[in-house]
Amino acid sequence: MPKPSQFSSQRVAILSDDSVQMRQTVETSYRALSGLAVTSVLFGCLSVLTFLDWSLAFLPVVAIVLGWIALRRIRRNPTESLGEHWAMAGIGLAALFWIAGYGWLAYGYFHQVPEGYLLISFKSLQPDPNRPDQRVSEEAEMLDKRKVFIWGWMYPGRQRSGIKEFLLIDDPGTCNFCAAQPRPTQVIRVKLMNNLKIDFTTRQIGVGGELTVYRDPMDEASGGVLYQIEADCLR
What we know:
Elements: H1 4-29, E1 32-33, H2 35-46, H3 58-76, E2 81-82, H4 84-111, E3 118-119, H5 138-142, E4 147-154, E5 165-169, E6 187-192, E7 205-213, E8 227-234
Parallel strand pairs: 1-2, 3-4, 6-8
Antiparallel strand pairs: 4-5, 4-7, 5-6, 7-8
Helix pairs in contact: 2-3, 2-4, 3-4
């Protein structure tokens, strides 16, 4: 018959084994939620702002990159972290809002052009970089005296309301205090016709009217610019 001390030692041994197993179970079952996966979801939700402006596409890009990195780390070390579904959700949201947002912006870009106006861009106004003697592009010369419509940003000036004349630029980051100034082909002088007036805005605007192309900004009539639009339409 076993002595009481033997029962006691056996019980301690059993409890010790159970404790070790429980500790090992807890250690192997605990996995931290990936912070990158959570951040990917956050940026995926913020990607809805892509509907507002083309430049906000960096939001879904960040979400997709973070989600992809999180997936790689989780799958490489599945016992250390979890959050695969979070990472996939972040990537999915980012892709959805990116495609939908750009689709919406493209629809507005092409369908807000008034009838009778030709949609152009600043890119079409740039001269051939391989031809240093060319002041304006051949396409720009063909657009002279035609009704065009172009999207751009107002160059900041002193007047803030009731503006009748302003400069339209193709870069929203250009300002009076920035070192980099726009090239002459990146600026259009806009003269509002009839009773049109506008208040200064940092949002992109559409301008429609007759385009005049000056081949030499030193001409007296040009006023120092290469392009001018007598605008009778604003968006």
